[in-house]
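Q&A FORM
Asked by: J.P.
Topic: structure of Alpha-hydroxy acid oxidase

PROVIDED:
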Amino acid sequence: MTHVCLDDLERAARAVLPGEIWDFLAGGSGAEASLGANRAALERIFVIPRMLRELGGTVEAELFGRRAALPMAVAPVAYQRLFHPEGELAAARAARDAGVPYTICTLSSVPLEEIAAVGGRPWFQLYWLRDEKRSLDLVRRAEDAGCEAIVFTVDVPWMGRRLRDLRNGFALPDSVTAANFDAGDAAHRRTSGHSAVADHTAREFAPATWASVEAVRAHTELPVVLKGILAVEDATRAVDAGVGGIVVSNHGGRQLDGAVPGIEMLGEIAATLSGWDGELLLDGGIRGGGDILKAIALGASGVLVGRPVMWGLAEGGEDGARRLLDLLTVEFRNALGLAGCDSVSAARRLGTRVSHPG
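REPLIED BY: S.T.
REPLY: Here is the structure written out as tokens.
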């Protein structure tokens, strides 16, 4: 079957994944209000295109001083061997070939060094662990492995209540493990009405603080990016703390149910941080090249894309993930040109309007 949009790949992935694994990937927390709101908020935003412009430029962008083929990176997603036997290795190869950064997750099911060895532009996503030394050891391992940035997720002091996983009594199969540290068997222990993955993270994770951010910054020469920022006040404090990037995100609707969609805060944060030379990224709900254009127009340097890449991985392994990234490239090039822009920087000067229901 020919896939002509990301929705096609979503349907194909859902058809091949077992129900509880699909729920683990697709679900949000609570009543999934924030999960749905991410898409609804993006769909309410409209771009004001410009006409009679010279076109035919590039869709490339610069992220942390290096070229990316698109203004995007693959978002961190845990346990990718749930979706395909090659897991993170296949997804990282697809990102390498597409010319976009790939973010290795603390909870990857392949050791971070093996993923980084694929090449391309690896970033490393950090969860703050109860043992600070283990957290900082992961940072050092990522830097030694050639990662280019530390994406510090700050919105998971513990895992949100994901009702699909609770109803399914979700646990990892024996063949899928947290490969970057010895996590015991907590994530594999199936109990009715419990998520073994949530039980595992409750045991391993600790709430991060601004002192945690300073500890990470002091431990690495790499840019530190805070993922999970929504409040303008937190964004300004992050800049004052010397971070190299911010990801505006409600964790894909998987943490606080009722948290505002990132796209609704992006413009205000971008305006407040005007003149800052760090990277401002958006995460959550991106489902096509037109969504990337909207994020750029509202002030983002680029976006993170997570679930859709996993759809491609599930549907066809490395080739499926590559097809997904190729499709995003085609869609973004089309959207950029139809908006009258010959570059990503030109898209930052586009106007937008929000359509209010009723």
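FOLLOW-UP: The CA atoms of residues 105 and 326 lie 23 Å apart.
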